[in-house]
Amino acid sequence: MNAKEKAIFCWSGGKDSALCLHRVLRAGDYEVVCLLTTCNAHFHRVSMHGVRVELLEAQAAAIGLPLEKIFVGQPSTNEEYAAKMEAVLRRYKTLGVETVIFGDIFLEDLRLWRENNLAKIGMRGLFPLWKIDSRLLLEEFVALGFGSILCCVNDAYLDETFAGKKIDYDFLNTLPPHVDPCGENGEYHSFAFAGPIFKQPLRIRVGEKIYRPIEQTHPTSAVCPPSSDAAKRPTQGFWFCELLLEDSPTT
Fold first, then answer.
1. This model's pTM is above 0.85
2. Chain segment 204-239, per-residue pLDDT in tens
3. Are strands 5-10 and 30-40 parallel, antiparallel or unpaired?
């Protein structure tokens, strides 16, 4: 029996990553050697999503895969992100890893950017969800019994009431028509806490909601490039919903 090809999974912690990982593990063609996530060193949270690193670590432990974290500054630059990402990927390449898996669905510019950077170091990207209808993906996600909650909401698309909502059929049916069901244009981000990839679900609770305006000195990031699709109005900021483990303190 031939050994499986080793791969790194570029992990956001959200629903697209969770569904994509489920598909990869179910297909059985790759050995996922680690989940790779970019975090903010100043806030000790997942970049852009705002989820605490301790939740990310608990999530990886519940899934049963090693977690590799890349810490960038506040604010970060594309150059810093690219350099740190390249260093980590080169280290894994020496261990026989040549493939990086992403949960992207249809952002052409982002895929090209990822592929170009990987090609520079002799690696390739794999995109198992590519060009699949995002509504069908979200319906599959819910039908499989995944649990996920909105941790970050873009105010150009959704209001404060969506922050902290669980992703279910009711959520899907109440989304405004201009919002992609999977939030592929950056409408929202989520955190997965239960489902078929978890050895046991995480017990989490919703804390306070915090609004943060866009920092005009650093409006974009290599970690989450802006979409070319215009929202109905410009993004002014984001609603973040604090998520906590059930046995953790409130602060």
1. yes
2. 999 999 999 986 423 333 344 444 444 467 999 999
3. parallel
